[in-house]
Amino acid sequence: MSTATAYEIRPEGKKFRTAQVELVIAHPDDLKETIGYRQTGHGTVPIIKLRKGMIYWLFSEAKGKVEPTPYIISESTDIKEIKEYLENKMLYIARYPFKD
User: How do residues 48-82 score in pLDDT, each as one tens digit?
Assistant: First the structure.
């Protein structure tokens, strides 16, 4: 699973910033993108894939809170895991992912 965190621990005393992100439970359509269309015997149908680069967070049932580490959907993302997270309402995304 790809994460969106620093590759190494930063020494204490270095400057850092805190960000607040409003999160919502993801719906399957939030993680999909249409990459094209194909013709079938029933007409034109969209070709749908996981939205690469989408950042998400996981809710920990054991801790009762959203884990602080964000993850990124990439080529190596396991679709079965994503489906399980969605079914269990564990996957959260930014409420306004493109808002300045």
Answer: 999 999 999 999 999 999 998 999 999 999 999 99
**What are the C-alpha distances in Å from 97 to residues 9, 16, 45, 54?**
27, 22, 27, 9
Structure tokens at 1: 């699973």
Of 57, 51, 53, 49, the C-alpha closest to 94 is 57
Q: Are 50 and 85 in contact (CB under 8 A)?
A: no
Instruction: Give the Å distances, CA to CA, from 51 to 27, 44, 55, 79, 99.
Output: 13, 21, 10, 11, 18
In whole angstroms, give the CA distance from residue 32 to residue 3. Answer: 19
Whether this prediction's pTM lies above 0.85 is answered by no
- The answer to whether the beta carbons of residues 65 and 59 sit under 8 Å apart is yes
